[in-house]
Design goal:
Layout lengths: L14 H19 L6 H8 L3 H8 L2 H24 L6 H19 L1 H10 L3 H26 L4 H19 L5 H17 L6 H4 L1
Keywords: DNA-binding
Protein name: DNA-binding transcriptional regulator, AcrR family
Organism: Auraticoccus monumenti
Length: 205
């Protein structure tokens, strides 16, 4: 065998592959150090690329954080879609799947998501991202629940997210178990879907 090793050329990543790599590096960096010390220079160093390349993908620090938020929301919708793919036609079962998908996805992100949201707090970017993500997620919930329970108004649907976020915070802080968070949210979803006092004004407007 030759004493001289032959260097294998490194495959050039596609733009999408590089984007995915940078987001993974950003998540690791935030997990290790939080968002207070998060900069594009540190991200470039962690990913082993140049700072201009990071700017090319995200524009600025807020762009990275926004991309991380979008990635989480997309993953949450994918998780819900996968769960509902095998759902039966019983409301309690579907409510349980909706609840478990929401809680489990939020817990999987851990405190990194909370750090990202806190770093974007007060920005127009976060407001728009949240509205867009909530509309898409709640449309999926409505599509899954209404065939089993009848029309559900928008205010009731938003209560699912409010309860889910509160229960996730409790589970992350260790005040309640993940199982308790899932079962409680499932009861909330079922109660919302079967509430006879729905305000139908928004449905008929």
């Amino acid at each position: 065998m030759s004493e001289h090793a032959v260097a294998v050329p490194r495959r050039r990543l596609s733009k999408q592959e590089r984007h995915t790599q940078l987001l993974a590096a950003a998540r690791d960096l935030i997990r290790d150090s939080g968002t207070d010390e998060f900069t594009l220079a540190r991200l470039a160093d962690r990913a082993g690329v140049t700072k201009p390349l990071v700017y090319d993908h995200f524009g600025d620090r807020a762009g990275v954080l926004a991309a991380l938020y979008r990635e989480f929301e997309a993953r949450q919708r994918e998780t819900l879609a996968a769960a509902l793919g095998g759902a039966g036609r019983e409301l309690p079962a579907v409510a349980g799947l909706v609840a478990a998908a929401y809680i489990d996805c939020c817990l999987a992100e851990g405190r990194e998501l909370a750090d990202v949201v806190a770093a974007l707090a007060g920005s127009t970017t976060l407001t728009l991202l949240r509205q867009e993500a909530e509309d898409a997620y709640l449309a999926m919930c409505r599509e899954a629940l209404e065939p089993l329970a009848g029309p559900i108004d928008a205010a009731a649907l938003h209560a699912i997210i409010g309860a889910g976020d509160a229960l996730t915070r409790g589970a992350l802080a260790g005040r309640i178990s993940a199982a308790r968070a899932r079962s409680t949210l499932a009861r909330v979803v079922t109660a919302i879907a079967t509430d006879d006092g729905h305000d139908t004004e928004e449905q008929t407007a």
